[in-house]
Here is the input.
Amino acid sequence: MKKSLFFTLFFISIFIFIFADQDKTSKTSDSPTTLQKFEHLATLDGRLIEFVVYGETPSGSRYDVHFEGRLEGKINGVMKGIDYALTRSDFFTELNVRGMIKTDDDVLISVEITGFLVGDTSEIRDTKVIFRTGNPKYQWLHNKIIVGLGKQVKNDKILIKYYYLP
Here is the structure.
């Protein structure tokens, strides 16, 4: 548990540092000390379609959230999956998503996301996003650092923007 919390806090710190200083960074990417900018990858305009509530466990309140939505950007298609969520006693919700993208050109991409929902707000932070596929057109995603920022805009609607380091 401590190791998982450490890694989550580590990724959050990096994420905040990068986005807080993004206007101050130089565009010179040949220096290893230069902070690179994240670029927009895609935006998910999704909806929550089913909730499965397991109740209180020793680790917190456990539930599954099924979702689906349109992904637009450098990847276009439909993304759907299940978030195996856990709301802890400090009201942070750990997100553990497994899903898939079916692109407009009929390619399947596996999706794994870890992150959290901030306290009792609607702010979503996907701290680690992994895409996997056997299709050569999208294999460039395999070695990218990808993160997501979003929010639950209504009870059943989410909007998440994904960014990557080129």
